[in-house]
Amino acid sequence: MAIHFNQRTIVPVVTAGGISRQPLLNKQFVPDILFELDRLTISPNGRKALTIASTELAWFQMTDGTATMHTAEHELSVTANHIGLLPPGFEGTLSSDAGATLLFALVPDVQKLDPAISGDPPIFRVLDWQNEPLLQSEHDARKRIYLVTPKMFGTRAIRGEMIIYPPGTECPVHHHRGGAHFMYFLAGQGTCYAGSDQVMTVHPGDLVYYYDLEPHWVKGGTDGDLIFSEFFVPSAVATVWADPSKICTWIPTGLNHRGSRPSRIIEKHAHSHLADV
User: Fold this and answer.
1) 3.65.10.10, 3.90.1150.10, 2.60.120.10, 3.40.190.150: CATH of 3-110+122-128
2) Would you say 59 and 106 are in contact if contact means Cβ atoms under 8 Å apart?
3) What is the model's pTM?
4) pLDDT tens-digit profile of 10-37?
5) Nearest to 60 by CA among 16, 126, 11
């Protein structure tokens, strides 16, 4: 059975530097999980140290506010549109004058998921997802933006996507093989289905975690776009469609989410061929 809850149900733990931490997913909740996921709230003038061990990989998604990422080589402003990858051995700090909120995920033993990472580690990188190519489903009104792929970030440990469901849009029944994934809902409302009888109404701040091989599908609501980010660990998780004729094919729109030219070009491709995007 899928795990479903809203972030407000998780009691925050206040730590040093004006940081409030809500543990969303970890081995306490899911014993065989391959990563840890927290929601971090940085209070005004707060500062979060980010130290990633040589055996770890981390990524973050800003969800509210503005912060500054400080490293030995960089000082970057990050907003609610930014996704960042923190490679093994990364050291830096994240500070905010007015306050900010982010999702922060850590893969504790990344070499098990990406054996090549020790010889060819990825670099620290931050991107604005609204500048990335906007793709349109060939079969319906759904849209997709890739957040983390092997080509974009140089690791096969994780994969991330932003998904947009206009009102009433529904995806076909499918399951994933080779790993688990979660969805974090950012805007709108809709319904998630899992197995034969699990029905979950979702709103902003909700998280749904699907186990390996668990059949599921999603339907948008009636008012406004349902928008969520989803992450897979590892990236090579396969998608299996209950009806093979419904396999998702994604067509580039030639635009980004802002309606202007995207940061790069992606060719038309099926959902099962993600290594080159």
Assistant:
1) 2.60.120.10
2) no
3) 0.95
4) 999 998 889 999 999 999 999 999 999 9
5) 126
